[in-house]
Amino acid sequence: MLLKTAQDAAPDAVAAPGPRVPGALIRLAASVAGGLIVYLAFPPIGWWFCAPVGLALLALALRGTRVRRAAWIGYAGGMAFLLPTLAWVRPIGDDAWVALAAVESLFWAALACAAALVMRLRLWPLWVACLWVAQEWARGAFPFGGFPWARLAFSQGESPYTGFAALGGAPLVSFTVALTGTLLASLVTRRPPRWRADRVLAGTFLAAIAVPVLGMVVPRPGDEGRTVRIGVIQGNVPGRGMYFLGDEPAVVLRNHADETHRMAEAVRAGRLPRPDIVVWPENSTDIDPYTSEFARQVIDSAAEDIGVPILVGAVVNIGADHRATRGLVWDPVTGPGAYYDKRRLVPFGEFTPLKDVFLALSSRAQLVGRQSVPGNKPGALRMGPVTIGTVECYEVAFDGTVRDTVLAGGTPLVVQTNNATYALTNLPPQQLAMAQLRAVEFNRAVVTAATTGISAYVGPDGHVGWRTGELVAGMNVLDVPVRTKNTVAAEVGALPEWVLILMGAGATTVAAISGRRKS
Q1: What is the pLDDT of residue 251?
Q2: Residues 112, 182: Cα–Cα separation, whole Å
Q3: Which among 104, 113, 130, 342 is annotated as catalytic?
Q4: Is 130 one of the catalytic residues?
């Protein structure tokens, strides 16, 4: 029987009558503290072990409470976590920052309601961990295409839990972190009957330790003995914040071309090895090179000087009213060729949902300008000796988008990104942690090229082998392993995620039905 007996019932259900305000305040404080502790696990602080500890506090705050109360307790924990974690939104406006955190915290409130139900069941640590995966899935799908930022997995770029990514991707990493936290919470909740207390407590403690230990022994594909030399260009920008292009957008293009000329000079002088390909970041030219003779000449000159194909990050016109964010292969002889158009577009950054409504509500919505058009195919592009898998900035947070690119033959992965608006915030290090997780998840090296930083190289083991600073120009030529063997996660895709979601949904249904019968 899944339901607990009366003597093991939730504390609120059997507590003697009396004032409840102090207890509610304790739960609220525990939830807020838990959210803040989970935040500490995320870059740039990166104390990964704080994630399960914070989850344990959040679980304790909900354990034994009624569903209605759980909603606002969970919402408070969500705000406590998301406000500092999403502080990188502040350059757009404090109102946008608070509004985003407020909307995303609604998912935490829904999670808390379901958790309050399943905590009445046996094996509740398992069901709550499953519900955490469901909550992250929902946030990554709704509204306006979803916002999968700040998932538990993205706090584990290089930790004992990271290895689980090779088995079940980011959802399995989030699940194992959450499971450790709920197991820790169960250690300090009401003890079972005395005759089996020691056995149950010892088993729970060992399980909490075993979860991250198992992550360190997950088997992964080995080295295949092949490498490619990739030149990475970080050109920097003249402006800051929302106006990073400055008064003259051509400066950004010139900066990246000039840095490429410096790379070519270093190659001729023997200070750098000759690259096989070169990667520029997203938005390395906001001037359409198809229609601008100036942009074409600048890129042609850089490509001819370095003598190898360049992956240019371009914003190109699509008809009279639209645009596309494009990764464009530029050959030193034939010019522009194969390309990839960004598929996952940033709401209110590259397109405006419910355009008429939001344009009436905020003048900042007009800064989007031309509405972007999404691409319709994975970013597997042949460049020199390899087929790279290109992913544009925001897309690295979406499991399916990265997986499609890998299955299309992309290796290594290249993340073209423009973080100029968010320079020196916690966004660039958070995005780098995502690249670390993707490297392990798909057994692919990941090269990130950013306009202002952080540009980086991540090995297939998730270790950062090289990185730049921020708000500086930089370049390097890197020997990058080429891997073609897929992980289990690449092969099974979203299957583990859906299994966990269905388990959580099933437990919630059983708890709700059982609760009605008892009442």
Answers
A1: 94
A2: 13
A3: 342
A4: no
For the chain, state the CA radius of gyration. Answer: 25
Q: Are strands 371-372 and 335-341 parallel, antiparallel or unpaired?
A: unpaired
| Structure token digits, residue 491 | 């092969």
Contact 245, 252 (CB under 8 A): yes
Cα separation, 327 vs 387, whole angstroms: 13
Residue 342 annotated to the active site: yes
Q: How far apart are CA 319 and CA 4, in angstroms?
A: 63
Distance CA 471, CA 240 (A): 9
Q: Are 289 and 312 in contact (CB under 8 A)?
A: yes
Confidence check: pLDDT of 361 > 70: no
This prediction's pTM: 0.92
Give me the catalytic one of 50, 113, 130, 393. 393
Per the annotation, the verdict on 282 as an active-site residue is yes
User: Do residues 372 and 345 touch, judged by C-beta distance below 8 A?
Assistant: yes
Residue 380: strand, helix, or coil:
strand
Asked if residues 406 and 379 have their Cβ atoms less than 8 Å apart, the reply is no
Q: 416-450 pLDDT, tens per residue?
A: 999 999 999 999 999 999 999 999 999 999 999 99
Q: Token digits for 219?
A: 């088997």
Helix (H, G, I), strand (E, B) or coil at 123: coil
- Tokens representing residue 103 in the block: 């909307």
Q: Given the structure tokens 């419910």, which residue do they identify? A: 354
Q: 33 with 89: CB under 8 angstroms?
A: no
Which one of the listed residues 282, 392, 395, 497 is annotated catalytic? 282
> Coil, strand, or helix at residue 45?
coil
Q: Cα-flanking dihedrals φ and ψ of residue 231, to 5°?
A: -90, 130
Q: Which tens digits make up the pLDDT trace of 130-186?
A: 999 999 999 999 999 999 999 999 999 999 999 999 999 999 999 999 999 999 999
Cβ neighbours, 10 Å, residue 269: 8
CB atoms within 10 A of CB 326: 25
